[in-house]
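Support request from a user on the community tier.

User writes: "When I paste my structure tokens into the form, the page sometimes reloads and wipes my input. The last time it worked, I copied everything first. Here is what I submitted, just in case something in the input itself triggers the reload:"
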């Protein structure tokens, strides 16, 4: 429950009930007048303590109000513990308060007329008016910011003094009321008919109201005084809230400036808002449409209404003065709500267009409102609090009441909205979450219930924009730009754009549902329109899948635009409108036309502002213009007098500070200097803009300098306008520029810490620099001529710097203040104690003093210590010869006066004084306390020097009047709340001090009009000539290059880089000079070596003589080696990089290829064949195939074609594995085996009886075997409707597989289960086909590679043959030489892998060719670029081919040369004749023989080569043919892949539905199987129970027969024993049965029945006691009857129990059978649905085109013997299928004849079996007749063979006799053992008695000794004298010993008494007595 809803201690009474229940008797208990306030206090107070009096007063007031109403407030009305206190008679003054409008403009708490009782003030200063809050809270709640009375509270919150004084203003005297009619007396009486309303305690404020009315026309005294009170209607139960026509007076309530009266104060109207150039564009939902021309937004502490047509602004101030958190507009646009910031902020609701303050909603959050939203009907308002409470509150805003509230989340929550369609549903979105709320009605009332959205697999995202859809779903944005569709608390799907793109690039900020279209706006500056129907029905199959869709329309607003929120404009007639207004995070307000038409307008920028903090402002020194610098990098110049922005310029980096130099720098005063966050300073000038420009002026860049590496934190220019000084935080530098030399850099100084602020010292040319370390430096500015900047710009500080280190004293100030407060508190406590001492006495004084001491001791004094880290200097303000500092941390909230020359430097430190601190050396001279803990960010003097302007860290502006005196003297502050959050970063005045301009961290820039001395000054009229008079000439010059690169060099870095480059150039020049000298020397040396070579040998110098130093060569060689190693190391990274690149390229393009394209050429023909270039199958593909094959292997054992076969198989196995197990209960123990004896029973001692029993049992066993065989035979008998399963399976197989060729396009076609395919199977089929294609290609490639290897081998052999031929042909004559076949060579395309091999030589050749190609340029390249031409010219041979061809050419040329030589030798006849003479005949013959052999070898070699070539060419042709055939097959395979892929896509569309249907069918099948299992199990149980029931009945029958046989014939007690046997006795059920049958009726728990079946009198039998064996009857027979009766009862109970079980099982089976029928029907429906779905899927599959390759001979469809032109109506059918159908006709004829023959044979067999059955029946009748005849012959009648077997020998009687005999023996033994034990016990008793007697004797002696000792002790005590005074210690010891002895004796006596008691009992056991040590007796003298 919120604070607003908590009742006070007095209780919240219902007015109507209280009015009806009041009576005169209750009114008589109280006096309507109190004499004075003291009398009232005495009636409640007494002499109690203050806290006790407070409680007593509260309780008495509560009792008084309860008595007035007639009854006390119940717990439901808010009764507290204080309200339950004791009630006493109290005089309560009911003081009427006349209704009036409060002076402060606030409304009364209710429209009814109220009176304020004094009971609300009885608490005094310490009491609480509500009973639950202290009085301090009641006092402070009516004051704000130090005011005496709140401007926001009503008069009902009157102070205590006002309530106490009220009785004095109106006094009436009480008189007794007379008579039951209740007539009023003449004066001062209240009539009995009058009614006093219940006092309602105002929630949280403590006010109490009472209402007085009159009846029957009689008026009370109060009514006469205030007749307007009669308007109250007592039937009005519910508080209707304020009057609908009530408005607050905003003029009295808004947050105005705070001032103080007195000397030096500033008037309250010193500053008035003139214009605002700000807009908080980063705040969420800070743009709303009010009407056709006006929009609403907030800026700082002001609500601004902007006219988009006239550009005029209307301002509304806030009430709290701490800023605005959020705003919202009512759906009717008649109201708008403003949520403020601050402590317990309020929600202000204004009426529009009157702008009156209509309602105020209080206490909805702690610090700030983050979002507001009205409900669609406007009746409710939802507010969202920010940190720390994040409270979601639902308001009835017209009644200013809270309906519901709840904590929204634990982190930031961005927005809340009501659902437009579903009432009571809300949605909140925020940091990493979205939450769905419902206003649910619970048994405890209406509550807010929130459900957090679960992201699941989707990444967690911040939720900025969302929209509630009509059906309850929610569509939200995400950080990455996609949309999330929420259904409940789960994500239904994620929506993205097509082509795997996001909907937006970045966060989606806004989503709207407008006129059936969804509109999204994102941070990327785009607005898109989406189809609502598509999004509403979006769904995906997989959880992590996207739903792609395209927008209907898209608009990109502009570059750099980031849309935060949008709102739709309105028209006068509410016509269809497509114009929207957009809030841009870059500082703009856009008008957008989002209509989907060709005539839509382009985006229009209505207004532009700073986006983010304003980092600096600079006013112009001669006109009403100012410049501002924003953190967004924009520079703006505006004319605040005309309220117009003149120019805007945006730079890439953010801004940090800005200067507008005066005329001492620029005579035209058009120069701006800006500092930026990247360390750049830009010098800009203002020029005229072009006519078509948006602004009047333009900014031109004149200089761009980068003196710093980081942000420029401060810039200043000296008074002469010559030097510019800049400082930076990041590099801790101070840079100086010479402005007169065109901003020439002078130099920079490195400082010890980052620069935070700068100011010029009063001494010339010195700069005060504040550092973040708390140090102030005074630096002297250098002149440009003094600094040598030839090498570096760095300036060494030297002695030009004064240093001051601030020593923190904030902790001292706080400590002193704490001590002063402590002293003041002690003084006040002492005064209160003194007063209590005088008024209440010493007891109350001591009590209160103790309470104060306890409180003080419990309070711990805070520890004040200096900070460990120095506080940062924020601002320096020089004044006169001193400077003033503002700091952060512990020293915040004050100005510290400091100087570099400390006057106390040599003074000793005085002793410390209480309440003050002692200033030490180096500490500030003076502290100017600002009475705040907020940082001071800006401090400046106004232009006229009359006031000091202070900008605070909380956004407030302070104005202090500068007073006369030494140093800076300031008057009381004038505090104005200006900016909403953050610090004031700039505060300046205009040149004429008529305006004050402030810029803050909230992005706002305000212009205030300054009213000096409270008098408003007339403003100058705006004039355009002010600027034109100065900007007359446009500054011309070459454009300046801007520094856009954030990593650009700074000035010093560029300087150092230039110096470094200069040094490198000098070194390079020197190297070149040295190289030239070395080259000259080398030339001279070479010439010298030539001269030396030409000299004579004896004068020639050796090579070693030229070596001046022999070791120089080795040194040089070592240096060369080291250089090589160094180069290798230097190139190692690049080498490894290139190696990795090559490896990646290979991996990406080469390794994935299984076989590259290899072309194999024939040798003698032009035939060629190439491989199939194919890629390796991916691992994912192989893994998918393996998984599918494993699944097939796992499913191979299941039933084919059955999806649920596995489940049914498992269930069948479970049914077979589970059998019915009979429980071993008590009933089984009393079953037939216990009644009739079993075959395995024990043998009796009587041999004859035992033998007869054995024979009977054998006969019984044989009979049972026959019965069992007969039952088995009967069970195997088939029913009349029995069908053979094998026959059914054969019929089913014939239906499925024998000639049923229904077309898949047939309407009645049913897809067999074996042919049903899903996406998984089709995917595996596709992968398998791809694998087969791959294997086919690889097999062919292997064949081609094998043939290539054969070619390589053939080439090797051919080279050998060619070499041999060369040798032979060299010896043969020229005419005998045959043409040698050419040796083939492997070409490049036959060995493509050779391209990847390289050697250093090939790399060098490649480099040479590459360089030549570069030199040739593109003109020398082919027409097709790098790919070359398509000519038939063979490629140029490579170097390897050239080298390989060289030896072949040499070998070919050698025989020719030899032949040529030979030809030359035999050229002339003379030479031949001469040779013939020389050669002998034998040699000629040998030579001829050798030539013949070589000719033969030549022919063989040539034929071998030709044959090898021909064989190889044949293989190539054969392989080429095979490839052509494979190409056809592979093309068909590719077509098949396309078909499978299309089928896969189609199956994927159906997969989800198929899975759902299949799961439904599987579920129903499993349910049916489960139900069948249950039915089978129950039927099995039922059959077992029936068998068991038959056994029990049979056993019962046998038991009766056994009883009859036991009685025998002519037994005179037969009737009696029969009655005993049949008697039904009371039988207590066993505990186990009681536990198991606890649910049975109570009447049958203890016994079954008490009636008997037969009556004694009916039989005429003398009445005998059935529980006693009668005289003359055998006791054994009676006992046996009793035993058999027990067994009979057990059997009857078991039979009854089994009957119940059988009945329940039958009912359960019947119910399950009915359920099974329903489930079977469901299975049938599911199968039908699945078959219909399969048919639908098959129809879709039939629509796919299948490509079939046919030969002409395969087409048998002819029309008139001619092939038709259209084959659409043809059917493609397998030829094997046609042949099968033809052969099936003959098979069916043969099968028909076979079945006819088989039927005839079966008919004959059936007739033969019928005849055999009749013969067996006749034989059975003959055997029955024979059996009857034998019984008649033997027994004379038909007898029961079972009874006959039982009569022969009574086994039960024999067994009972043996049992009785055994028990007699057993019990006699036990009796003997007991007799022995009794004798032993008697003996022990005798011994114990003797011991007891001896102990009694000892006791008597000890008693006598005790008496003697007591008498001696008494005499000694009486005769004590002085002679024993010395031995008193010994006497004490003796006495102690005797006392111990007496105690031990008493213990022994007690022990003996116990023994006597034990021995007096028969079964007593004696324990040994406890032995206790007896103290020794003293010697006779009594001394130790």
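"...and here is what came back when it finally went through:"
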């Amino acid at each position: 429950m919120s604070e607003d809803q908590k009742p006070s201690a007095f209780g919240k009474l219902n007015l109507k009930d209280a009015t009806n229940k009041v009576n005169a008797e209750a009114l008589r208990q109280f006096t309507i007048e109190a004499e004075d306030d003291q009398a009232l206090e005495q009636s409640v107070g007494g002499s109690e303590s203050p806290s006790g009096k407070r409680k007593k007063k509260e309780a008495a007031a509560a009792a008084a109000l309860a008595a007035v109403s007639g009854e006390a407030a119940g717990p439901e009305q808010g009764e507290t513990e204080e309200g339950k206190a004791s009630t006493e008679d109290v005089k309560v003054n009911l003081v009427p308060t006349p209704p009036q409008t409060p002076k402060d403009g606030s409304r009364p708490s209710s429209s009814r007329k109220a009176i304020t009782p004094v009971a609300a003030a009885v608490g005094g200063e310490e009491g609480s008016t509500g009973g639950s809050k202290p009085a301090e809270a009641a006092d402070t709640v009516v004051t704000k910011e130090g005011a005496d009375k709140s401007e926001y509270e009503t008069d009902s919150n009157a102070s205590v003094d006002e309530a106490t004084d009220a009785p004095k203003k109106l006094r009436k005297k009480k008189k007794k009321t007379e008579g039951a009619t209740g007539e009023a007396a003449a004066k001062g009486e209240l009539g009995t008919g009058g009614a006093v309303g219940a006092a309602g305690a105002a929630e949280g404020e403590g006010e109490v109201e009472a209402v007085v009315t009159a009846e029957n026309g009689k008026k009370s005294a109060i009514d006469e005084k205030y007749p307007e009170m009669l308007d109250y209607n007592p039937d009005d139960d519910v508080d209707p809230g304020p009057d609908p026509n009530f408005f607050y007076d905003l003029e009295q309530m808004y947050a105005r400036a705070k001032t103080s009266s007195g000397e030096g104060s500033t008037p309250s109207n010193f500053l008035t808002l003139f214009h605002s150039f700000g807009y908080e564009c980063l705040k969420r939902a800070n743009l709303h449409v009010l009407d056709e021309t006006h929009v609403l937004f907030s800026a700082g502490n002001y609500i601004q209404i902007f006219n988009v047509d006239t550009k005029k602004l209307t301002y509304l101030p806030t009430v709290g003065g701490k800023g605005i958190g959020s705003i919202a507009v009512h759906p009717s646009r008649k109201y708008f709500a403003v949520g403020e910031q601050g402590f317990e902020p309020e929600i202000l609701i204004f009426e529009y267009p009157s702008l009156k303050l209509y309602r105020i909603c209080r206490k909805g959050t702690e610090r700030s409102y983050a979002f507001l939203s009205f409900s669609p009907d406007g009746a409710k308002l939802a507010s969202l609090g920010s940190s720390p409470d994040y409270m979601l509150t639902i308001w009835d805003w017209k009644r200013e009441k809270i309906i519901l509230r709840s904590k929204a989340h634990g982190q930031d929550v961005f927005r809340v909205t009501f659902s437009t369609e579903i009432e009571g549903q809300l949605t909140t979105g925020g940091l990493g979450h979205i939450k769905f709320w419902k206003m649910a009605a619970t048994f405890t009332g209406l509550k807010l219930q929130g459900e957090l959205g679960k992201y699941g697999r989707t990444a967690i995202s911040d939720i900025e924009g969302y929209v509630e859809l009509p059906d309850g779903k929610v569509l939200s944005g995400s950080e990455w730009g996609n949309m999330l569709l929420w259904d409940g608390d789960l994500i239904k799907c994620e929506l993205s754009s097509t082509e795997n793109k996001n909907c937006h690039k970045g966060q989606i900020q806004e989503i709207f549902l407008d006129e059936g279209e969804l509109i999204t706006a994102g941070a990327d500056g785009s607005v898109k329109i989406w189809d609502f129907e598509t999004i509403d029905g979006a769904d995906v199959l997989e959880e992590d899948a996207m739903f792609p869709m395209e927008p209907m329309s898209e608009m990109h607003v502009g570059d750099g635009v980031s849309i935060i929120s949008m709102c739709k404009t309105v028209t006068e007639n509410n016509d269809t409108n497509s114009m929207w207004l957009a809030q841009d995070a870059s500082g703009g307000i856009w008008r957008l036309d989002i209509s989907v038409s060709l005539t839509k307008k382009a985006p229009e920028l209505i207004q532009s502002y700073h986006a983010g903090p304003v980092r600096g402002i600079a006013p112009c020194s001669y006109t009403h213009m100012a410049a501002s610098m924003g953190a967004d990098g924009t520079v703006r110049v505006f004319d605040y007098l005309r309220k117009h922005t003149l120019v805007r310029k945006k730079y890439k980096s953010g801004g940090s500070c800005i200067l507008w130099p005066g005329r001492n720098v620029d005579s035209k005063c058009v120069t701006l200097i800006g500092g930026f966050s990247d360390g750049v300073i830009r010098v800009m000038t203002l020029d005229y803009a072009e006519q078509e420009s948006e602004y009047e002026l333009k900014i031109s860049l004149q200089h761009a300098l980068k003196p710093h590496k980081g942000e420029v934190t401060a810039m200043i220019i000296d008074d002469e306008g010559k030097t510019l000084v800049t400082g930076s935080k990041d590099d801790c530098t101070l840079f100086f520029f010479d402005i007169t030399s065109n901003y020439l850099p002078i130099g920079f100084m490195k400082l010890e810490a980052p620069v935070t602020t700068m100011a010029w010292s009063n001494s010339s040319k010195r700069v005060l620099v504040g550092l973040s370390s708390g140090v102030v430096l005074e630096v002297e500015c250098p002149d440009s001529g003094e600094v040598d900047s030839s090498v570096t710009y760095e300036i060494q500080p030297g002695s030009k710097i004064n240093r001051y280190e601030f020593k923190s004293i904030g902790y001292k100030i706080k400590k002193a203040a704490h001590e002063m407060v402590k002293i003041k508190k002690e003084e006040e406590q002492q005064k209160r104690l003194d007063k209590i001492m005088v008024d209440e006495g010493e007891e109350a004084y001591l009590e209160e003093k103790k309470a104060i001491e306890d409180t003080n001791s419990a309070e711990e004094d805070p520890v004040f210590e200096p900070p460990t880290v120095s506080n940062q200097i924020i601002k320096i303000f020089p004044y006169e010869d001193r400077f003033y500092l503002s700091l952060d941390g512990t020293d915040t909230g004050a100005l510290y006066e400091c100087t570099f020359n400390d006057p106390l430097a040599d003074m000793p430190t005085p002793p410390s004084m209480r309440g003050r601190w002692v200033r030490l050396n180096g500490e500030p001279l003076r502290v100017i306390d600002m009475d705040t803990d907020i940082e001071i960010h800006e401090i400046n003097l106004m232009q006229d020097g009359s006031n000091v302007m202070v900008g605070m860290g909380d956004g407030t502006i302070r104005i202090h009047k500068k007073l006369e005196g030494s140093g800076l003297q300031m008057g009381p502050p004038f505090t104005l709340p200006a900016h909403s959050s953050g610090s004031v970063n700039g505060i300046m005045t205009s040149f004429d001090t008529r305006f004050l301009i402030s810029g803050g961290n909230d992005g706002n820039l305000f212009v205030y009009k300054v009213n000096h001395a409270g008098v408003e000054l007339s403003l100058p009229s705006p004039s355009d000539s002010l600027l034109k008079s100065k900007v007359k000439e446009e500054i011309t010059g070459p454009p300046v290059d801007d520094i856009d690169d954030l990593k650009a060099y700074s000035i010093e870095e560029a300087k150092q880089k230039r110096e470094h480059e200069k040094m490198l150039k000098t070194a390079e020049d020197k190297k070149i000079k040295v190289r030239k000298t070395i080259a000259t020397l080398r030339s001279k040396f070479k010439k010298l070596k030539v001269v030396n070579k030409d000299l004579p040998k004896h004068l020639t110098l050796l090579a070693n003589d030229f070596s001046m130093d022999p070791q120089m060569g080795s040194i040089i060689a070592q240096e060369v080696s080291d250089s090589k190693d160094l180069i290798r190391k230097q190139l190692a990274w690049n080498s490894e990089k290139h190696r990795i690149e090559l490896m990646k390229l290979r991996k990406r393009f080469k390794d994935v290829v299984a076989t590259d394209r290899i072309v194999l050429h024939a040798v003698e023909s032009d035939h060629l064949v190439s491989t199939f270039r194919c890629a390796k199958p991916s691992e994912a593909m192989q893994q998918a195939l393996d998984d599918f094959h494993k699944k097939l292997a796992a499913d191979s054992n299941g039933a084919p074609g059955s999806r649920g076969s596995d489940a049914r198989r498992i269930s069948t196995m479970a049914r077979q594995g589970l059998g019915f197990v009979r429980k071993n209960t008590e009933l089984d123990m009393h079953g037939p085996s216990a009644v009739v004896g079993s075959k395995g029973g024990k043998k009796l001692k009587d041999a004859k009886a035992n033998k007869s029993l054995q024979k009977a049992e054998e006969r019984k066993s044989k009979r049972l075997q026959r019965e069992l065989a007969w039952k088995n035979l009967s069970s195997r008998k088939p029913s009349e409707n029995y069908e053979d399963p094998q026959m059914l399976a054969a019929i089913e197989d014939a239906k499925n597989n024998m000639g049923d060729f229904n077309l898949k396009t047939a309407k009645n076609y049913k897809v067999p289960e074996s042919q049903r395919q899903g996406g998984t199977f089709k995917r595996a089929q596709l992968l398998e086909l791809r694998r087969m294609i791959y294997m086919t290609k690889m097999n062919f490639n292997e064949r081609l590679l094998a043939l290539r290897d054969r070619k390589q081998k053939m080439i090797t052999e051919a080279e050998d043959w060619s070499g041999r031929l060369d040798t032979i042909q060299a010896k043969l004559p020229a005419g005998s030489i045959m043409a040698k076949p050419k040796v083939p060579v492997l070409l490049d395309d036959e060995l493509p892998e050779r391209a990847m091999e390289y050697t250093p030589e090939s790399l060098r050749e490649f480099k040479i060719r590459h360089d030549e190609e570069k030199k040739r340029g593109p003109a020398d390249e082919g027409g097709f670029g790098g790919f070359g031409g398509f000519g038939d010219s063979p490629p140029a041979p490579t170097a390897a081919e050239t080298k390989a061809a060289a030896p072949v050419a040499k070998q070919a040329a050698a025989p020719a040369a030899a032949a040529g030589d030979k030809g030359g030798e035999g050229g002339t006849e003379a030479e031949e004749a001469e040779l013939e003479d020389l050669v002998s005949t034998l040699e000629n013959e040998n030579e001829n023989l050798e030539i013949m052999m070589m000719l033969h070898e030549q022919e063989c070699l040539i034929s071998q080569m030709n044959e090898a070539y021909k064989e190889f060419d044949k293989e190539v042709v054969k392989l080429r043919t095979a490839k052509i055939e494979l190409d056809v097959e592979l093309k068909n395979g590719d077509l098949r892949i396309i078909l499978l892929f299309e089928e896969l896509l189609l199956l994927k569309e159906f997969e989800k539905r198929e899975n759902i249907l299949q799961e439904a069918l599987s579920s129903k099948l499993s349910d049916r199987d489960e139900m069948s299992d249950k039915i089978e199990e129950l039927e099995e149980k039922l059959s077992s129970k029936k068998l068991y029931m038959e056994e029990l009945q049979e056993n019962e029958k046998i038991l009766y027969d056994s009883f009859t046989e036991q009685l025998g014939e002519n037994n005179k007690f037969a009737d009696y024993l029969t009655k005993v046997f049949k008697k039904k006795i009371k039988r207590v059920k066993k505990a186990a049965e009681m536990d198991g049958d606890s649910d049975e009726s109570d009447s049958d728990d203890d016994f079954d029945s008490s009636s008997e079946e037969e009556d004694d009198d009916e039989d005429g039998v003398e009445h005998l006691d059935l529980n006693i064996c009668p005289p003359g009857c055998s006791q054994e027979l009676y006992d046996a009857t009793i035993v058999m009766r027990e067994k009979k009862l057990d059997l009857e109970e078991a039979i009854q129990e089994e009957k119940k079980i059988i009945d329940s099982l039958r009912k359960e089976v019947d119910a399950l059978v009915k359920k099974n029928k329903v489930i079977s029907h469901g299975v049938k429906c599911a199968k039908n649905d699945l078959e219909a779905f399969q048919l639908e899927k098959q129809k879709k599959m039939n629509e796919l085109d299948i490509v079939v390759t046919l030969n002409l001979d395969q087409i048998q469809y002819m029309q008139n013997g001619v092939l038709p032109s259209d084959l659409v109506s043809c059917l493609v059918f397998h030829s094997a299928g046609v042949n099968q159908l033809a052969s099936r006709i003959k098979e069916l004829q043969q099968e028909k004849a076979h079945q006819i023959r088989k039927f005839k044979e079966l008919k004959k067999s059936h007739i033969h079996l019928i005849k055999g059955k009749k013969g067996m029946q006749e034989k059975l009748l003959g055997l029955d007749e024979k059996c009857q005849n034998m019984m008649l012959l033997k027994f004379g009648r038909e007898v029961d063979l079972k009874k006959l077997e039982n009569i022969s020998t009574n086994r039960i009687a024999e067994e009972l006799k043996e049992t009785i005999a055994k028990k007699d023996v057993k019990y006699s033994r036990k009796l003997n053992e007991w007799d022995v034990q009794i004798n032993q016990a008697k003996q022990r008793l005798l011994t114990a008695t003797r011991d007891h007697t001896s102990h009694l004797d000892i006791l008597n002696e000890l008693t006598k000794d005790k008496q003697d000792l007591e008498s001696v002790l008494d005499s000694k005590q009486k005769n004590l004298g002085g002679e024993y005074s010395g031995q008193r210690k010994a006497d004490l010891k003796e006495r102690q010993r005797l006392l111990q002895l007496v105690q031990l004796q008493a213990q022994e006596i007690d022990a003996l008494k116990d023994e006597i008691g034990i021995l007096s009992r028969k079964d007593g056991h004696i324990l040994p007595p406890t032995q206790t040590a007896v103290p020794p007796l003293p010697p006779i003298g009594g001394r130790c």
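Agent notes: The reload is a front-end session timeout and is unrelated to the input. The chain has a mean pLDDT of 76. The first strand starts at residue 94 and ends at 96. Escalated to web team.
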